[in-house]
Amino acid sequence: MNYLCHTLGFPALNLIPLFILNSTAFTHSPSPRTHQDEWGSVFLEVPAGTKDSIATTAITNLMSHFNIPHWDVAKIDVEGAEAKVFGADADLSWMTKTKALIAELHHNYANDYFGEGNVHGLVRNAAKGQGMREIDSDHEHVVFEQAS
Q1: CA distance 145 to 56
Q2: How far is CA 29 from the centre of its chain?
Q3: Which residues sit opposite 145 in a β-bridge?
Q4: What are the Cα distances from residue 78, in Å, to 12, 82, 86, 110, 118?
Q5: Alpha-carbon distance 5 to 13, whole Å?
Q6: What DSSP state is assigned to residue 55?
Q7: Cβ-contact 62, 18 below 8 angstroms
Q8: Predicted local confidence at residue 105, as pLDDT
Q9: Rg for the chain (alpha carbons), in Å?
Q10: What is the Cα–Cα distance from 107 to 37, expressed in whole angstroms?
Q11: Gap between the Cα atoms of 29 and 8, Å rounded
Q12: Is residue 19 classed exposed, middle or buried when 0-12, 13-18 and 19+ CB atoms within 10 A define those classes?
């Protein structure tokens, strides 16, 4: 996949294509292209060493590894795993270091694979709890900014 296709006009933008969850784990797609839109795939956590698995990392680990003190804009698209990134057990400390957050929500994946039916509410509550306010949303995206 060409991760740079959406960022070609932004030379100062640093793209870090990694799989993000709330922890360091391994993922595997049980059945790629599972929905009619044929766009994304769902990745579920699997034991280390599983054939064709992909390593994941937590956002806080990513910030530490690359010495990133804050995000001007964080765009999160986790293909239905919103509860893993924004849920009650997630480390949300990175959100206080984020000026703007754009989350792409996948209600169908979240419900079908993770049993999470209200991803918009989940993400909204997480952001609000970290001092962010919602400034825009549609059926698939929600945008937040730091309230202070």
Answers
A1: 26
A2: 16
A3: 100, 133
A4: 24, 6, 10, 10, 15
A5: 12
A6: E
A7: yes
A8: 84
A9: 15
A10: 14
A11: 28
A12: middle
Determine the Cα–Cα distance for residues 104 and 6; give it in Å rounded to an integer. 15
* CA–CA distance, 47 with 73 (Å, rounded to integer): 32
3-state secondary structure of 27: strand
Tell me the pTM.
Answer: 0.74
∠ CA 78-80-84, nearest 5°, is: 70
**Beta carbons within 10 angstroms of residue 84's beta carbon:** 21
Cα 65 to Cα 80: distance, rounded to the nearest angstrom: 25
The rounded distance, in Å, linking the Cα atoms of 94 and 98 is 7
Profile the chain (148 residues) by mean pLDDT over runs of 10 residues.
56 67 58 51 72 79 89 85 83 95 80 69 92 91 91
Cβ neighbours for 83, distance < 8 A, ≥ 6 positions apart? 110, 114, 116, 119, 122
